[in-house]
Specification:
The chain is α/β, with parallel strands linked by helices. 37% of the residues lie in helices and 15% in strands.
Length: 606
């Protein structure tokens, strides 16, 4: 039985004593961090410079920091409702403030997207590694302590949200190939996930923290699904084969794809796609059902499971996944799910989900018609993809498992890698193309190009010669950028002088018209939201205001809108929610007047 503690500082002191003051800490990514114990270890190392604390982890969770006055007005009053009363992780706060002492080192192999841009120490200590290789990097670091947040049911514990690397480390320790202490922190909000990789006995732990007060789990707030992402989701849904295997990611794209697959199952996808892409691929219902095999158990997969689409079983499970971090409703649904139903969702190590090594014949037999869907930031005209790093070398997130699944797509018969990205983005008040002639850094090189999807269509690139790749990529590029990209491709001799651009309507206006026509089938929040009704009305207006804020002319147009467009019924409530007067006044700030304009434009265009 583990030695049990109620006080985290006492347990931290015990761990430091047991390791002689040199703590090489294996720490799960994301939700599995035992924050109470972790912060106690960090405090102890801060207070005693003779203690060294080396942390290897990923995905340090933090609530977003508003980058503007409007963002602060929206988020601050709703912070705990949206993100949970999740405690700050001390090493992250010290890193961000430049106060982390030299005797504490933090190495991450995947960063919370965009949160560590410009933080030099984190940028310098980031380790670029595939998810499956991150385990090997950690093993080489020879950790002597592993700590993790645990669920408990009776006399058993569950690794719950993080079997990803922990399960393999425990297997190696049981085989005598590693030696480390394990300490768990119990949290009753974690769902108890059953199965041989997730369940552990008390003997597995040397120490266990049962704190007087348990912290609230981090809640990943759902973002509204944009028109771009709904179009991407609809395109991808036609590429998925009944009876096949599915990997999905988190966020707008994953939600959009899952929603589109549900529309397909209900017989609505063909209607929705009619005005978007007449040649849509498969739009029939799922009679055999899909098998979910993903590094991350995301809300989209859970929705597909509960909708009767992810039903094909492999080794007694309809879903195998390595970790999860989602919203509170997701955790509640897993906790309250009947035990026999929850048993169909099995957490496994990423060495199982992300790779074919180990029992390869069985994995090949199970992962038929795999569709491995991942998101990217940019793509080149020759099919390379950048997903983790900016053009100037700043790490945005990480490689994660993306290349693992690209590898599987090429290794498995009938499998495809599907990379999704919006064709354009807004930056500095300007619209720029996410499809470029070249990329300074590539996550997926162009020789592994397969399928790339934007809101404007599907580019099937596998096995195609370069001139055809260029043509197919141009066909899914926003029309405003096609000519310039074609000129660069011609200059490099990659496409013939006689090639002519396709007669496409790759414009935001056409997409907006499509969304308006099918608005009933394409909601902002297909799977619900922690934002209340007023906040949901504010979000698109705030996005519009943010885009306009970089241009005095665009701001002036929003202000002018308040003089010619009527106020929608919800304007007074929305303005009050943001801390402004319900009624317009001559002396109200320009930002408030521009927000009114944005609300009115949204009301007229929706």
């Amino acid at each position: 039985m583990p030695e049990t503690f109620r006080d985290a500082d006492e347990l931290a002191a015990r761990i430091i004593e047991a390791t002689g003051g040199e703590v090489r800490l294996a720490l799960p990514l994301g939700l599995g961090k035992p924050v109470t114990l972790l912060n106690a270890l960090t405090r102890a190392a801060c207070d005693d410079a003779s203690v060294t604390l080396s942390i290897f982890t990923a995905l340090t969770l933090e609530a977003p920091a508003p980058g503007s006055d409007m963002g602060q007005r929206l988020l601050d009053p709703a912070r705990e409702r949206l993100f949970g009363a999740y405690p700050e992780i001390l090493y992250a706060t010290l890193l961000r403030e430049g106060r982390l002492p030299d005797n504490i080192e933090v190495n991450e192999f995947f960063l919370l997207a965009g949160r560590w841009l410009g933080v030099d120490r984190m940028q310098q200590s980031y380790i670029s590694a595939n998810y499956t290789h991150a385990r090997d990097v950690l093993i080489a670091a020879n950790p002597n302590v592993l700590i993790q947040l645990l669920a408990r049911e009776g006399d058993l514990y569950s690794l719950s949200c993080n079997t990803d690397i922990t399960a393999d480390l425990l297997d190696r320790r049981s085989q005598g190939r590693m030696a480390f202490l394990m300490a768990g922190e119990v949290n009753d909000q974690l769902p108890f996930m059953p199965g041989p990789s997730a369940e552990i006995t008390p003997e597995t732990l040397q120490y266990c923290l049962e704190p007087e007060a348990q912290f609230e789990l981090f809640s990943a707030v759902r973002q509204p699904v944009s028109t771009q992402h709904h179009a991407i989701g609809a395109h991808v849904a036609g590429l998925v084969r009944d009876g096949g295997t599915l990997q999905l990611g988190i966020g707008q794209t994953g939600d959009a794809i899952a929603h589109a697959l549900i529309l397909r199952h209900e017989g609505q996808l063909a209607r929705v796609l009619h005005d978007l892409a007449p040649d849509t691929g498969d739009t029939g219902p799922f009679e055999t059902g899909l098998y979910g095999c993903a590094e991350m158990l995301v809300r989209g997969l859970l929705e597909l499971f509960e909708a009767g689409i992810v039903t094909r079983r492999v080794d007694g499970a309809a879903i195998h996944a390595g970790f999860f971090v989602e919203d509170r409703d997701f955790y509640t649904r897993l906790r309250e799910m009947p035990a026999e139903t929850r048993a169909l969702i099995q957490m496994r190590p990423v060495s199982f989900t992300n790779a074919l090594y180990g029992d390869e014949p069985a994995k090949r037999a199970a992962r038929v018609d795999g569709r491995f869907v991942n998101s990217a930031m940019k793509a080149s005209l020759l099919g390379a993809v950048a997903s983790d790093i900016t053009d100037d070398g700043q790490t945005v997130s990480g490689v994660g498992g993306q290349v693992n699944f690209v590898d599987q797509a090429f290794a498995l018969e009938g499998a495809r890698s599907i990379i999704t990205l919006p064709a354009t983005r807004e930056t500095g008040g300007k619209t720029v193309s996410n499809i470029a002639w070249e990329l300074p850094f590539a996550t997926v090189p162009h020789h592994l190009r397969d399928i790339i999807v934007t809101e404007y269509g599907v580019a099937d690139l596998r096995g195609q010669p370069d001139h055809e790749v260029v043509a197919r990529m141009l066909a899914i590029t926003d029309v405003r950028f096609q000519a310039e990209l074609l000129q660069k491709a011609r200059g490099a001799g990659k496409i013939g002088k006689d090639y002519r651009l396709p007669d496409t309507e790759n414009t935001p206006e056409r997409l907006a018209s499509w969304r308006k026509t099918h608005r009933d089938a394409l909601p902002d929040f297909p799977f619900g939201s922690d934002f209340d009704a007023v906040e949901r009305q504010l979000l698109p207006a705030l996005e519009r205001l943010n885009c306009a804020s970089h241009s005095p002319l665009s701001l002036a147009r929003l202000v002018w809108t308040t003089l010619r467009a009527p106020a929608p019924a919800h304007e007074a409530r929305a303005m009050s929610r943001m801390g402004f007067d319900e009624r317009a006044t001559l002396l109200e700030p320009v930002s408030a007047r521009a927000l009114r304009g944005a609300l009115r434009l949204e009301a007229t265009e929706t």
